[in-house]
Amino acid sequence: MDFFRRYIMFIQLLFMNWVGKLGVILASTAFISFFILEGLSLIGVFRSTYTGIVTYFIIPVIFIIGLILLPIGWQMQKKKTGTTLHNVFTDKLGDGSIGTHNFWEKVIPVVLILTVVNVLFIVAAGSSAMHYMDDSEFCGTACHTIMGPEWQVYSVSPHSRVPCVDCHIGEGVEALAAAKINGAWQAIAAMFDLYNKPIGTPIHNLRPARETCGKCHWPEKHYGSKLVKIERYKEDEANTKQYTTLNLKVDAANGVGSGIHWHIAEDNEVRYSSVDDLREDMIWVEVKQANGEYKRFTNKHLADSTFDSIEPRIMDCVDCHNRATHIYEQPDAALDKAMARGLIDTELPFIKREGLAAIITQHEVKTEGLAAIEERLSAFYAIEYPDQKFENLESSIDAIQEIYDRNIHPEMKIEWNTYPNHLGHRVEFGCFSCHNFMQHEQSDGCFRCHNKHLLDETGATISDDCTLCHSILSLGERDPLQYLLDQDFRTFEEHKNTYFREEYLKNF
Ligand code: HEC
Ligand code: HEC
Ligand code: HEC
Ligand code: HEC
Ligand code: HEC
Ligand code: HEC
Prior knowledge:
The protein is of the alpha+beta class. The protein is built from 17 helices and eight strands.
C-alpha cells in the first residue's frame, strides 16, 4: 500500500508543470494503446500495414518522447522554483514518513520498477517491429510508391507465398545485420526521396543464390524436359491464332546428355566479365574444364578494349532467373496470354492490334494511361463498327487495363522493358529466326553468351543452335504439334519440319 502511495505520488510529482504532464500523458497513452492495438490485431479485428506502422513505429516513438519529456520537465521545475525532488517529496507527504534519512530507500524502488517496465516495453515493441519489418506485406506495401510495383508483380508470381526476406536476406546473423543496416538506409532514402527511379538492377547485395534459392530448390535435381505451348495472336482483323510449342531441355545434365541447368550443376562453373553492370555485353565467358583449367570465349568486337574494373561473376540462378518473382511482361506476350485465357475476347476485330497500340502509348500518370486505354478502345469500336454490339468489349477493356496497371508505373519510371527478363531470348522473324545466314547478331537473355561473336582460340562459339535448348514442335503454326504431324513437306516453307520432328523423336 505504501509502495502504491509512493507510486501515485511520484506520478503527481511528474505532473508538476506542462512539460511533465505532456510526458506522462504521452507515455501512458502510448503504453496502453500498444496493448489494445496488439490485442485487437491478435484476435484478428484488423491487420493491415497501416495499423502495423502505428503499433510498431509511431506508438513506441511517442512513448520514448514521453519518457524524454519527464526529466526535461523536472529540470525546468527545478530551475524555476529551486526545489529538488527530495523537497517536493517531503512536502507532499507532509506526515514525515519520508525524510532525509530514508529518501533514496523509499523512492528508488519506484523509479527502478518503472524503469524496468519501460525498458521491457521498448524491447518488446522493438523486437515486434523487427519481426514486422520482415513481413512481406510490410516490405511490399509500407513504402507504397517505391515497392508498389515489385509487390504488384510479386503477388501474381509463382513465389507469391515466399516471404521477401527469404530471397533478399540470407540466413545467419551477418546477413541479418547487413540487411538491417541497409534497411535503415533505405528508410532514410525513402523519407527524403533519395532513391533511384526505377530502382536499379542487378542488385549487388542480393545474397548468393545458393543461400536463398538453394534453400528451397535443389540445383542438381533431375528436371527432365518441359513442354511449353505458347499461343500467339496476329495483329489482323481475325486475331489469327498461332502456336509455338517448345520442349525445353531443362535438365541439369549431370554428366549425361545436355541440358539448361548444366551451368549450375555440381562440378560445372561458368564465369564471365561484362562491359558494365547490366551484364548484357560480355567481354569474355569462361567454362571450367575437367582438368580445372578454364576455357575462354572472347568477344571479337571487344578484344582490343580494356575493361579491367569489372569483376568477373560466377553464373548462378539469378543470371537466368533475374525475374524469378518480379515478372514484368512484354506487352504483346501479356495480351496474348490474356487472349488465350479468354479474358480478352478474340472475337473482337483487331483487338490485338488496337490493344497493343493502347498499352504501349506513354503517359505521365497511371490514371491518365488507364483512362486513355478505355477511351481509345471504346472510340475505335464505336467508329469502325457502329452497327455492331460487342458484349465482351467492356470486360476485355478491363483486362487490357489490368495488364497496363500491373506493368507500367510512371511514378517509379517503370515502362515496358525497364526490367528485361533473361530467361529466353529475342525472337527474330523470317529466315533469320533459324539461319543467321549473315552472322546477324542477336542479344538478350541466353543470347548474351550463346551467339556468334564470342570465340575460343579455335574460333568455335558457344552454340546457338535452335535445338540446343529446346526441341521445336511448332513455330508460329496453326497446329501446336505441326512438325510431328507433317509427314512430308510440300512447300519450301516446310523444309525444316522433318528436321525438327527427327530431332525431337531422337531425344524423346
Ligand atoms: C523468389 C525470390 C524473391 C522474392 C520472394 C522476392 N524477391 Fe525481390 N528480387 C529477387 C531477384 C532475383 C531480383 C532481381 C535481382 C537482380 O536482377 O539483380 C529482385 C529484385 C527486387 C527489387 C529491385 C527491382 C527489380 O524489380 O529488380 C526490389 C525493389 C525487390 N526485389 C523487392 C522485393 C519485395 C518488396 C519483395 C516481397 C514483396 C520481394 N522483392 C520478394 C528475388 C525475390
Ligand atoms: C522459400 C522457398 C523458395 C525460395 C527461397 C525460392 N523458391 Fe522458387 N519456388 C518455390 C516454390 C514452392 C515454387 C513452386 C510454386 C508453384 O508451383 O506454384 C517455386 C517455383 C520456382 C520456379 C518455377 C516457376 C514457374 O513458372 O513455375 C522457378 C524458376 C524458381 N522457383 C526459381 C527460384 C529462384 C531463382 C529463386 C532464388 C532467387 C527461388 N526460386 C527461391 C519456393 C522457393
Ligand atoms: C554467361 C554466359 C551464358 C549465359 C547467359 C547462358 N549460357 Fe548456356 N552455356 C554457356 C557456356 C559457356 C556453355 C558451354 C559451351 C561450351 O562448352 O561449348 C553453355 C552451355 C549451354 C548448354 C549445353 C549444356 C550441356 O549440357 O552441354 C545449354 C543447353 C545452355 N547453355 C542453355 C542456356 C540457356 C537456355 C540460357 C538462357 C536461359 C543460357 N544457356 C544462358 C554460357 C551461358
Ligand atoms: C542458364 C540459365 C539458367 C540457370 C543458370 C538456372 N536456370 Fe532454372 N530454368 C531455366 C530455364 C530456361 C527454365 C525453363 C523456363 C520455363 O519453364 O519457361 C528453368 C526452369 C526452372 C525451374 C522450373 C522447372 C520446371 O520443371 O518447371 C526451376 C524450379 C528452376 N529453373 C530453378 C533454378 C534454380 C534454383 C537455379 C539455380 C540453382 C536455376 N534454375 C538456374 C534456366 C536457368
Ligand atoms: C524454323 C527454323 C527455320 C526457318 C524459319 C527457316 N529455315 Fe531453312 N532450314 C532450317 C533447318 C532446321 C534446316 C536443315 C534441314 C535439314 O537438315 O533437314 C534448313 C535448311 C535450309 C536450307 C538448306 C541448306 C542448308 O543450310 O542445309 C536452305 C537453303 C534454307 N534452309 C533456306 C531457308 C530460307 C530461305 C528461309 C526463309 C524463307 C528459311 N530457310 C527459314 C530451319 C529453318
Ligand atoms: C541457349 C538456349 C537457346 C537457343 C540456342 C535458342 N533458344 Fe529459343 N528459347 C530458349 C528459351 C530458354 C526460351 C524461353 C522459353 C520460355 O518461354 O520459357 C526460348 C523461347 C523461344 C521461342 C518462344 C518465344 C515466345 O515467347 O514466343 C521461340 C519461337 C524460340 N525460342 C525460337 C528459337 C529459334 C528459332 C532458335 C534458333 C535461332 C532458338 N530459339 C535458339 C532458349 C534457346
